[in-house]
Design a protein that fits this description.
Elements (H helix, E strand, L loop, with lengths): L11 E2 L2 E9 L3 E8 L5 E7 L4 H16 L8 E7 L3 E7 L2 E2 L9 H20 L2 E2 L8 E4 L2 E4 L6 E2 L2
Length: 157
């Protein structure tokens, strides 16, 4: 049985205790977790796939996020390995934006578009294209909107 098959609420990854699953991607699972000592809530994105070819894109995304320190881009707080092999990222936790929250007041839509636009401007200034802009890849953190999920991002010259 893989290390991933054993992860559930209450499991620990480093200093973090998993609380619940908050999302699934093509090859990842995202958990809400809490730092044991600081009681700070975070998101932990874990590579679910055991296929070695999926490791490189995951690690590449972590490297991209480590280079992007901007208010409208999700913050990479930590990177590590479970059992010395399965990579994970500790990220800022935000409230996912969904289309089920419709209708949204116009001022909120304008705030989101402005924040996402500023995040994209910062990303593009680093020679990077996100390639997967959609509502599911926008989080709300402390009233601000931030970009997340850079798994398909590309560097351009």
């Amino acid at each position: 049985m893989s290390a991933l098959a054993e992860l559930m609420a209450g499991s620990c990854i480093g200093k973090y205790k998993l609380i619940r699953v908050i999302g699934y991607g093509g090859y990842c699972t995202v958990y809400e977790a809490q730092h044991d000592e600081l009681k700070h809530r975070v998101a932990i994105k874990i590579l679910r796939s055991e296929d070695p070819k999926d490791r490189e894109p995951f690690i590449r995304e972590a490297k991209i996020l480590a280079r992007l320190t901007y208010v409208n881009v999700v913050s990479l707080l930590e990177f590590g390995y479970i059992g010395g092999y399965t990579p994970y990222m500790v990220l800022a936790l935000g409230k996912p934006c969904t289309t089920t929250d419709l209708p949204v007041p116009v001022n909120e839509v304008l705030s989101m578009v402005k924040s996402v636009g500023e995040g994209l401007e910062a990303v593009h200034s680093r020679g990077l294209v996100h390639c997967d802009i959609k509502v599911a890849n926008i989080l709300q953190v402390f009233g601000k909107y931030i970009l997340t999920d850079f798994g398909l991002a590309l560097f351009v010259s």
